Lipopolysaccharide transport periplasmic protein LptA
Amino acid sequence: MYRKCCFVLLSCLVPLSVSAANAPDAGLGKGPIHISADQLQGQNKPVQEAIYSGDVVMQQGDLIIHAAQLTIHAAAGKVEKAVATGSPVSFTMSSAERHGYGQQLTYEPGSGRIILSGDAHLWQGKNEVSGNQVTYLLQSQQTAVTASPGQRVRSVFYPAKGGSAKP
């Protein structure tokens, strides 16, 4: 049974559309943010913050995040950061053929940065990189991977047809 008790945010908190419906494809990290969850608690003072919990789905354009809990941090009605946690939290971007998971995901819409941490994995097609933390930049499609102390980052790359690996 889902808890239906929600605290209503003031309309000036963040320009979010809380909806289970899919957003039209507005590209990677662009367009309105749609969130659906079992529960929402929010506040405007002293900080603008919204905490979604229970089977959370966040979508912005082609980016879809699944988590147990999602905290939205905002300023002046604009989303600055979304922090998702889960066991694990995952995301997909079908147009970039990317998907990944980790124990925590931080998404910064302004910079288009996604940071997966805690047993983080990122795939492009069949190719995979993993480590303690994977940082991915949506617009430039750059990736940085770091390992835990005493560990190493890992990668698996499959040759493309014709013998060359896909970047």
